[in-house]
Amino acid sequence: MLPRFLLPKAQRDVAGRLYLTRSDLNAFYFATYALERPRGWKQSPTVGHYWRAALVVFFNYGVDTGTVSQSACFHEQVLWRHVSWRPEPPSGQGGDSRYGWLYYRRVKTKKQFYRPMNRVVQTHLKSLCPDQAVFGCGSSRPNEQFQRLCSLADVQPKQDIETGEEKPWVLKDLRKTCATYYDEHMPESSIEILGHSVGGVTYRRYAHRDPLAFKAIMSLSQPTAFAALSQGLDGECPCCRRRFPQA
User: Fold this and answer.
1) Residue 205 pLDDT level (bands cut at 50, 70, 90)
2) Does the record's keyword annotation contain Ubl conjugation (predicted)?
């Protein structure tokens, strides 16, 4: 008896998309101004301030979700002692960074990173309260709050490549977005910035990718909304100067 052949699948005209566009990131950034204040929130910066800083860090470094929000006991969240405003590299290797340095550790591999901060990252971190956690997003379930942000930003769900089914965006997709734009900006830079494992002993031993990562981080083109705070337009649209309602 011959095996049954698979039924033909309907052809889709639109391919699946696994990363967020710059327009989506701008919409996310502006939607943070409409986030509700969590119950018991008494901090002077709004929850939107922390989410805007988190979006900037996700886009520039592709960090893990547990690095920003400690939703599990084994996650190592970024603390203020991990932020250095001095230009000298904390590891003692490499050149100076005029905007300071950020230290974090990958959740999966425990690999340590000392990354230079560009102007956008430095401006957003300095806008937060130094007495609190760096990314106090007001929830132990950050993906649920991110779904709320997707709804406020009116960002359409992603489509699965195989089935074409719609799936909600999660914070891990920001890591894929980071890799996409870094590879577009400077090929192979995402390998070092995101800490991906690379095959080949010779490549791992002799390829010095730190200068490439440094150059890529300092020269990556930012979404338009991310530069608003650096221009002194906190709470205003950089295009029409319209004020956003603060939560």
Assistant:
1) very low
2) no
Residue partners of 193: CB distance under 8 A and separation at least 6: 61, 62, 115, 178, 182, 213, 216, 217
User: Which single residue is written with the structure tokens 């922390």?
Assistant: 50
For each of the domains in the chain, give its residue range(s) and CATH number, in order of start.
22-227 (1.10.443.10)
What the block records as the tokens of 38 is 């969590």
Q: Looking at residues 20-37, what average pLDDT do you find? A: 90
Q: In the beta sheet, which residues pair with residue 158?
A: 167
Rg (CA), the chain: 20
Say what the pLDDT of residue 115 is: 92
CA distance 194 to 197: 9
At 247 the pLDDT is 45
Q: Which residues neighbour 2 within 8 Å (Cβ) at sequence distance 6 or greater?
A: none
- Say if strands 158-159 and 166-167 run parallel, antiparallel, or are unpaired: antiparallel
Which residue's structure tokens are 């991906």?
Answer: 196
Dihedral over alpha carbons 243, 144, 179, 109 (to 10 degrees): 140
